[in-house]
Amino acid sequence: MADTQRQRPYVPARTLDTEYPLIDSDPHFKRVCKYARPSDYAVGATTAAAGPALMVFWERVAPSYVGKGGFAPIMRLAGVIGVTAGFLQFYNRSIFRFYGFTENQREREMDMREMVDKIKSNEPLYGRSSLSPYMQGVASRNSRYAGVWLHMLPWFNFVNHEQHGVDTAKYYQQAERELEAERTKAS
Known about the structure:
Blueprint: H1 29-34, H2 38-61, H3 71-99, H4 105-120, H5 133-143, H6 169-186
């Protein structure tokens, strides 16, 4: 009797030619936010404040005369749109460093430190997942390089999986070097 379970093919992540090294082609939402720089927060906050500030400026330059209750809903809408735009700008700047589109030396060092620490404590590199390997692959294929199209369709990776488009051997090699250095230092 033939094996009824079909083997599904693994679809590797496409590697893009970028100026800086790829850290992760499908980083988890938490990692993108955790690795953000203070400048990302500043740009996001400036973008968020720009919408309401522009509405106040326009109201001063060319008053709308909508009355007492007419301007508040417009300001709330401008605030929501501004906060959304600010968050997307913040997220985009951070995720582009994972893809290697912009300078990412700090993030590479943070990534190496985080992964080596996980190896030393015998944790899975990219976290545990309750999904089947097939569903993890589906999630990965759906959100891989999704940050490139963030302005068109905000799509984030909330799934822990092993398909990130990088060779994880570098983390294990660095962990071995550090453990060997600790052993020789102890003796």
